[in-house]
Design goal:
Helices cover 63% and strands 9% of the residues. The longest helix has 32 residues. The radius of gyration is 30 Å and the shape is globular. With 717 residues, it is of the alpha/beta class.
Amino acid sequence: MTRTKHISFRFLIYALLLLSGGLAFSEGDVTSQMTNLVLQIAVILFAVRICGKASERIGIPSVLGELISGVIIGPYALGGIPLPGFPHGFFPLNSADLAVSPELYGFSTIASIILLFASGLETDFALFLRYSITGSIVGLGGVIFSFVFGALAGVLLMGKSFSDPLCLFLGIMSTATSVGITARILSTQKKMDSPEGVTILAAAVFDDVLGIVLLAVVLGIVSAIQGGGSISAGSIWLIAAGAFGIWLGFTALGLIFSKKIASFLKLFKHSWDFSICALGLALLLSGFFEKQGLAMIIGAYVTGLSLSGTDIANVVQERIYGLYEFFVPLFFAVMGMMVNVRALFNTEVLTFGIAYTILAVLSKVLGCGIPTLALGFNVRGALRIGSGMVPRGEVALIIAGIGLTAGILDEQMFGVVIMMTLLTTLVAPPLLTASLKMNGRGTRKETKVGDSETITWDFGNPEIAGIVNHGFLRDLRSEGFFVQSLNMDEGISHARKDDISISITKKENEIEIEATAEDAGFIKTTMYENVLRLNDVMQDLKEASDPLQLKRESFDGFARTSSLHPDKQLVKKVKARAITVDLQGSSKEEILKELVQLLANTGHVTDFQQVLHDVSEREKVMSTGMQNGIALPHAKTDGVDSLCCAIGIKKGGADFGAMDGKPSNLFIMVASPKSTNSPHLQFLAFITGKLKNEDTRKNIVDAPDAAAIKEIISNAE
């Protein structure tokens, strides 16, 4: 970019800031608040994506990058720097109790509801009640140790009583576990279905439910204390019983009437409609729980939990994924924005934060590890299980936000919780990886789940692999398995039923399944039936349609519609340096190779062989030889970084399997990237529209050089 362009870009940004600032401070109060909110959300969305991707590149979870992005752009850092039109900064400090604006915090509150609603949908309450004794004991041990250790941090380091609201919150914030990070490590190490992996994933289910229950109890106690109520041992038990009763009552009602609730939602017919209404129920129950002195996220979790066993659970989860991806990173950023970085550098705060983090790590290692020693595991296995339960995550941040707005946590203690969340998430992966690499099994005796094997299917195409994976998971659910999406972005799922445990990872063209050798037969049979069913569907599709007729209609459709929607930007994709009037090849393979070489002249080909392979594979499905001497070889490929086009003329023509059986003499190759959006079909429509005129085709074939061909295409109607 030239210096002039740099100056123009900076001037544009400066003008936009002045304009937005003028709007913010010259119009009415509501308008100014909404203007600021819109601009702030826009900045946050870019910040979380940039920092999230940067985090993934250096090998740490994207959630940490999203959290750090909030710290960077927040009111205590860059957000507080005065700018034109924003005298108090782009993210001005609202107050000591709530650093961001109430409007922005409102968005983060909605995000926390969506997050916990989704967590509830992923939880199988029946599994919570009936799954392995090991999982329940490990989960319970982790919650108890974490709560006690967290509360003791306040007692020992701050001299407060155990029942003090601050100590109770320090305890409850220490209980949460983020199993998504652990699942990724287990999957990478091929340990998802080891005794330790199965136990960690089972314990995480108990951890989630027990943590929410404990939050309800703590909030009930805190509410009574803040209201001036008695805090005797008897009254605490009474308050705890009341809070637990509200949670249990609504959970029981939700589970009992879950099918009726699902039937009611399905009255809205379309899956998008009933999914949004399901989220509406979560918001409704969230508000009710808040009115009862409990947290909104408890109501959201109860709603998700109630629907988790219904036939619409997976559909709802899939439909709200877009909202989840929009809101949840915004939530992490807002949490980061409320961290007073300067306060964290206070020696006392830093000391307390490190001590609290050490206790948080030890509480999970000991609380989850020690019980396993009585359940058939050795010290090695106990360490692996305890390490896998160490990462804290979203729930800890949500609870911290509740404590901050309620005045229970000050900005220093809030920063301490953020520090603990960051450090436990960073410490857990190397700790778990090191323990998994220790020689020897983690159990005293050989177990069924210890004898595992990995089965891999390569379907040669990511879209086919995605369809097969979806069908396989659906078949497992129909067999009574509880299927949990542990890391949606990385395609990691886990299925459990009784003593059968299966981990599924979808990687580009492949589906990789890890399970015991004894269950391999069941898995292969299920996959065979799934693929066979899909093959029958494809056969029915072939019988119900004539591919050649569809090809002809497609070509005719391109030619008709392209003239209705001309796009001058598409003309720029035709480069003279990627055009030749003298193709040398005589066979399809030779011509394709020449055209890919021409594509490389555009500068957009990053992998020559990959492009040639993908274009050739597309030709195997059905020849792109059209009619009137035209051939349009094309493909979406990872071998280019942008849409590009090559044009070649074969004077004598060559056999390219054209629809009319005649030789092709005008070849136009189009390649565009798989991973990003590009006007692939639009360009094909555009170029065929240019070629529908017989005189235009003749002029191109007879053109003396590349420049003449580009000129003809640019000026053709």
